[in-house]
Structures are given as C-alpha cells and as structure tokens.
Amino acid sequence: SELQKLHKKFVLGNILQESEFWATRKNLLDDETNKASKQKPGFKSAMLADVRPSADGQTNKVTFSLTTEIIHQIFAEKPAVHRAFLDYVPKKLSEKDFWTKYCRAEYLLRTKNTLAAKAEAADDEELAMFLKNDDILAKEAKLKIKRVDPTLDMEADAGDDYIHLPDHGILRDGSRETADIDSELARRTLSQDLNRHAAVVLEGRSTDIESTDTKTVAEALARSKKG
What we know:
Layout: H1 2-10, H2 18-38, E1 54-55, E2 62-63, H3 68-77, H4 79-88, H5 95-110, H6 114-123, H7 125-131, H8 135-146, H9 190-203, H10 214-226
Antiparallel strand pairs: 1-2
C-alpha cells in the first residue's frame, strides 16, 4: 500500500524515527478531517419539481410527501416560503395547514389551472402568497443585473435572472407559452426553478441541521443567513 511504501522510504531509510513518521501521518489525517468537517453538506440534485403528488385512484385526493430534507431544500430554494413559515407558523397557521396550502398552490401551478388558482387566491390570502413570484429572488435578480458592467449591455447574458422579466422563459413542465403580463402566475417558469435549484445545490447547505423539527430547521437557516 501507499502507507507501507512511505514507511519503508522514511523509516527504514533512516530519514524519520518511527514515532516521527506516525506523528506526521496523524497530523495529515487531522488536517483532512478538519477540511471535511468544514465542507458544506450538499443538497440532493433532484429537483423539487420531481417531488410529485400521488393519487389513491379512488377519490380526488392528492397527497404530497414532504420529508425534513425536502422542506429544508424548499426553504433554501424559495426564500419567500421560508420567510412565510417563520411569520405564520404557529401564530396564524398550524404547520399542517401551512404545508397543505403550499402543496395546494404547487398542484395548481403544475396543472396550469390558472382560473382555479386565481379564484382560490382571491379567497385565501395565505394560499395566494405561494402562487406569487418570489419577491426575495426578484430583488436579488435586480441587484445582480445592476452589478453587470453597463458597457457590455448584454441583458440576456446578464445572468440567469433575465427570465424574471415578462414574456420570457419556459413555463413549468416544459410547455412554451407567452407570459400574461397581468398575471404573476404565468411568470413562474421552469427556467427560474432550474437556475435557482442549480445555485442552491452548488452552494450546499448553509448549515448542517440534524433536527427533524421543521421549526428548528427554519430558525437555524435564518440564523445562518444573518451570520
């Protein structure tokens, strides 16, 4: 093995004492351990869009399965949802009701049921916030575009955030349609989801949270962003 070769070279070659050799190896191993511990644990590369609802085949009931890992990823990819969770749970909504409304909004978006989405949003303020474009990401997009060298004047390449503008992007599930300028629902694009997902996966978790309590995960993530 490589270790045996090094031992033969340095110890049997009278370059290092036995104790010195193993002390050096220990320091190297400690360094590797420290480096590994400082690396951000990553998210799974699977898209949140791949978390598909299941139907029982007998009724119209549709079920989404949300694990703590998935919820952590939702918080990371959708900062407006993360903010809403901290603001609403448990003061205004139970955690169950919060995620029921979130999943209902996702279902309406995936099925492109715009009329039903608008109707339900008009009667349900909490559900409506899940149907809107993420205002936090929109602000980040504007800041990125402002930082682009004005001499380049290449808006389409100023970042992936060009797709935040109306009439651009591929709607969720791959269909290409012209965006309705009057409807924020139409601005939820697959391209936006893909780019945000890729950025979050590459960045990794901002904090390594082992807790299975959603509130703990949300609060720890908020603290890590402030720090």
